[in-house]
Write a structure and sequence with these properties.
Elements lengths: L5 H5 L17 E5 L11 E4 L4 E4 L5 E4 L5 E3 L20 E4 L3 H4 L6 E4 L6 E3 L13 H4 L2
Antiparallel strand pairs: 1-4, 1-6, 2-3, 2-5, 7-8
């Protein structure tokens, strides 16, 4: 089913928003990799302040702080577009970002599933937090 608006399709991420859980010391990277006919408008990505608008042609990338208000517009078919094309025309963007929990040592990392469907085994914090790490160079001698 095709949603009436981008917000209907994507919730709060379909309109201007901030990624409140991002780490302020790191950037988000976005790459557009859509499957759209040549005569479609690919849509825009925007950062409200300072007023940056980027056309989302294929393989175009942008680095930005997700803590600033940002969002996008959907791709648009030209007037009189073949309805069959609407069935396969797709906007796809890869988003890469390190969440705050991952960069400050509070994130849990799944190592694998436990036998018998009894949950997930997470890497213990002692293996990921710096306060538990010994000077390994002393152990090698």
């Amino acid at each position: 089913m095709i949603a009436a608006t981008l917000k209907d399709a994507m919730g709060e991420f379909g309109e201007k928003h901030r990624d409140k859980k991002d780490n302020p010391a790191y950037y988000t990277h976005m790459t557009a990799m859509s499957n759209l006919p040549d005569d479609y408008d690919p849509g825009r990505f925007f950062i409200l302040y300072p007023g940056v608008f980027v056309s989302l042609e294929n393989y175009k990338s942008i680095n930005f702080s997700g803590l600033r208000f940002h969002g996008g517009t959907p791709p648009r078919a030209p007037p009189g577009a073949d309805p069959a094309t609407l069935q396969w025309a797709t906007r796809f963007c890869l988003i890469h970002y390190p969440p705050r929990g991952q960069t400050n040592g509070e994130q849990r990392y799944a190592l694998g599933g436990l036998p018998g469907g009894k949950g997930v085994f997470f890497v213990p914090s002692e293996m990921t937090q710096a306060m538990y790490v010994t000077n390994f160079s002393l152990l090698l001698h």
